[in-house]
Amino acid sequence: MKPDLKGMTTAEIEQFVKGMGEHAYRGRQIAQWIYAHGAPDFERMSSLPKALRERCSREARIGNLETLTTIATPTGDVRKFLFRLEDRETIETVLLALEHSRTVCLSSQVGCAVGCLFCATGAIGLKRNLTAGEIIDQFIKVQASLKPGDRITNAVFMGMGEPLLNPANVMTAISLLTSKEGPAFSPRRITISTCGIVPAIYTLAAAPVRPELAISIIAPDEAKRGELFPQARLYPLDKVIEAARFYARAVKRPVSFEYVLLKGINDSHSDARRLGELVGKVPCKINAILYNRLPDKRFQPCDENHALQFLEWIRPFCRMATLRRSKGGEISAACGQLRAGYARTD
To answer: SS3 of 80, please?
Structure first.
């Protein structure tokens, strides 16, 4: 199969065109066409000579996700995209459009190996990792769907999959998001959300580009956490907190701890106190999240008043504690609801 240039860094594309006997700047032009302009093929690259466009078409390709469906909330503030990959697997991507921001929620895997019991993606199991090209193409396709003049302002790895179990491809995608040939994002406009893959957090702290980090705590004690998160024993809470503290110091920015509130399971006063004591010595923010219902009846959301009380119990330990009200629940696009339920027809 011909090499896919989508997912290659600018330096890699430069090497590719130099191997064709071309100047390196042609590689930079191609990278700009792919990542800044969203060109789906070489024919659109009008700044390249026709002979080069034709040769590139013979010797390389530009992979493209197929948009199967797009659905939106009645207000249009949330849109969910269903994409089909070349092997006919499917993934979901979400756009959250607020008054002054456009945030794209990217998937990093087909399914997920972590298997959190309250997450729809976890019920699928892991099919495979996404390539860097498949990750960045979600951004490109969503950007192309916006009205002229609208731009995506933030990217979050909070879609399907555990991004730190696909670190090489995720970090390549982040390098493309921050490159001058692409969207040229600041690392502070990119967030990786993880259940706490400890070795990968340390690796990320030493990376050339270090995004914002959000860690899902799930429960503040190991016994309860182990019931909700089957792989908890691999990444004990004390090690996760130690890694979070290391990352915050390395990047000189607070990390975020995400805490999904499950009625009668992890939302008591003692849970709040244990959570506060656990994270209190880490430069951090706490985002409490109202649970989004799934068909599994074991889990229910607490009401908003109780969630606000939970935050008051935490604030003596962490002043930056807020309630995150998920959007898109009516189209199964909110936190924990992505499943990519499209039926394959091959």
So the answer is: strand
CA 170 – CA 163 distance, rounded (Å): 6
Kindly state the tokens that stand for 240.
Answer: 């996760």
Predicted model pTM: 0.93
What are the tokens at 285? 């923010």
SS3 for 41? coil
pLDDT at 335 over 80: no
Question: What letter does residue 195 receive in the DSSP assignment?
Answer: S
**Looking at residue 48, what is its pLDDT?**
97
Query: How far is residue 271's CA from residue 287's CA, in Å, rounded to a whole number?
Result: 15
In the block, tokens 């039926």 appear at 343
Q: Please identify every residue annotated as catalytic.
A: 92, 335
Rg of the chain, C-alpha, whole Å = 21
Residue 156 · residue 139 · CB < 8 Å: no
User: 215: closest CA among 237, 231, 196?
Assistant: 196
Contact predicate 321/288, CB 8 Å: yes
Sign for the pseudo-dihedral over CA of 136, 138, 140, 143: negative
How confident is residue 327, by pLDDT bands cut at 50, 70 and 90? low
Give the pLDDT confidence of 45-65 residue by residue, as tens digits: 999 999 999 999 999 999 999
pLDDT per position as a tens digit, 52-108: 999 999 999 999 999 999 998 888 889 999 999 999 999 999 999 988 899 999 999
Q: Which domains does the chain have, with CATH numbers?
A: 10-59 (1.10.150.530), 66-331 (3.20.20.70)
